[in-house]
User: Which sequence fits this backbone?
């Protein structure tokens, strides 16, 4: 009986320590990736602000067999695109647009909304622009979600980098 009580006490103690440590981990994790693009700003902005244009540069929209549904209009606040993968519906919805950035949410059924923005920053003294993709993931207080949040950038970062590289390649090849 003492052995079982000792194991139970140890398990509860370990859970409390892990929970307390997880409280030190932030619940909001920002992932940021960027690329330099040598093209006119309006060309870059046109490609990121119109969801119909994403198929030209974003790797997800070049996958064979995926059917996409784009709202009309496909540009501006509340423009949406949705598709089904892994038996789940995915949706991107533009929440705001300025002359320097496009903000949008990415939703997947059963998962948390990820707030995204693609920001265009001019590089001083050059014709290049720094295009930065920022994604904000929010987790609950649960210890397993907080510890999983540590790896969010390593998991999602390569996808953002691939998309930005596709944007760079397409924009530089098709701009005057």
Assistant:
């Amino acid at each position: 009986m003492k052995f079982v009580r000792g194991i139970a006490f140890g398990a509860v103690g370990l859970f409390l320590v892990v929970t307390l440590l997880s409280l030190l981990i932030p619940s909001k994790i920002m992932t940021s990736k960027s690329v330099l693009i040598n093209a006119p700003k309006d060309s870059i902005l046109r490609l990121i602000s119109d969801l119909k244009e994403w198929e030209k540069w974003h790797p997800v929209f070049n996958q064979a067999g995926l059917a996409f549904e784009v709202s009309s209009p496909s540009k501006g606040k509340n423009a949406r695109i949705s598709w089904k993968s892994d038996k789940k519906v995915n949706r991107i919805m533009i929440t705001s647009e300025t002359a320097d950035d496009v903000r949008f949410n990415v939703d997947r059924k059963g998962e948390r909304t990820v707030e995204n923005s693609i920001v265009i920053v001019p590089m001083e003294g050059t014709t290049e622009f720094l295009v930065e993709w920022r994604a904000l993931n929010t987790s609950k207080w649960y210890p397993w979600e907080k510890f999983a949040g540590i790896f969010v950038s390593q998991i999602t970062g390569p996808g953002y980098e691939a998309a930005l590289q596709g944007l760079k390649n397409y924009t530089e090849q098709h701009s005057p």
The two ends are 79 Å apart (CA to CA). The chain has a mean pLDDT of 87. The helical segments are 2-22, 41-49, 143-149, 152-174. The CA atoms of residues 16 and 70 lie 47 Å apart.
